[in-house]
Design a protein that fits this description.
This protein has 372 residues and is of the alpha/beta class. 23% of the residues lie in helices and 19% in strands. It is built from 9 helices and 14 strands. The strands form 2 sheets. Strands 6-5-4-3-2-1-14 form a 7-stranded mixed beta sheet. It has a 7-stranded mixed beta sheet with strand order 7-8-9-10-11-12-13, covered by helices on one side. The two termini are 21 Å apart.
Length: 372
Amino acid sequence: MPGLRTGAVFAAGAASALAGSSVLRAARGLRRSMGARVDTVYTNTDPDSPHERFDAGKIVRGVVGRARHGQGRPSRPIPLVAHPSPEQSSDLAVTWYGHSSVLIEVDGFRVLADPVWGERVSPSPTIGPTRLHPVPVALSSLPPIDAVIISHDHYDHLDLPTIDELTRDRDVPFCVPIGVGGHLRAWGVPEDRIVELDWDQAHVLRSTGPDGPSELKVVCTEARHFSGRGLTRNSTQWASWSLVGPSHAVFFGGDTGFTERFKLVGDHFGPFDLTLLPIGAYDPLWPDVHTNPEEAVEIHRMIAKPGAPLVPVHWATFNLAFHDWSEPVERLLAAAEEAGVTTVIPMPGGRVDSRDERGGTGRADDWWAGLG
């Protein structure tokens, strides 16, 4: 739950950092990384449940204790694949690069979601959660992209080094929830490449291919979460995304807690042919802003077509909560089997293509088994 949790990690690390040069290194680039200052306040449609209480002291103690004992980390290196994308985009495919970073192919369009290629999800270059595995492929190796979508402004979803590289090397629009454009402007993204949307607003991508003109609706849809890159919270909007093409629709959950309102998203923009739903970094300390695996399965059942696959995201890459590394996927598989939901779980870098009867590349059965 970076924001409060990243702040707690940062505070815990700062308290133990050496004076002088170490502190200066930790603070390097802090102001720019935090992004723009915005005064607007956003809220969830469903309020937090009465029992939710953020205990910063307990979070700090948990973070320090887990770091000391190596908990929440895999016992061996995480396997990776780096399968190149085909020249022609698929009608329905996903490449997962770890955490919530995915390349989604829908009806010939390619959309890059929550790209995080940085080494650390923190405002500091020396303090905060670091990667548990390398990025499977360089950002420059990705195929042509039609748009980038961002779910919200937390460091594990909106990464300054990645945005800088995409701004410099690719001429693509950034579709973001309202308010997040302020960060992009502060980082030098040209105004004509920033598309800010509120819930239920859409941006239409257009292209002309071998079969003639085509359109993809990129719809900013509701989520139940929060935002913030510093001490100020909820000054920018958070969102899920619905990608609706002429033949297929994909739902990207980004980072969210459970809400029955996802049924409305499915009714309006689905049912979806594939869902990407967060399954990790949950805890009773923050029950309303991160789904657990069982809730992810329930959301999928609300919004997806029968037999449509669920591809889990928001796990495996950063240690952001207090559960064991492989617990999210193990719980997901048990819940999905009981509910009759199809899951596809690629290795980081693996590609899932609906046209491939085997389900895609980088899908070695139970590749996470024995890693903790």
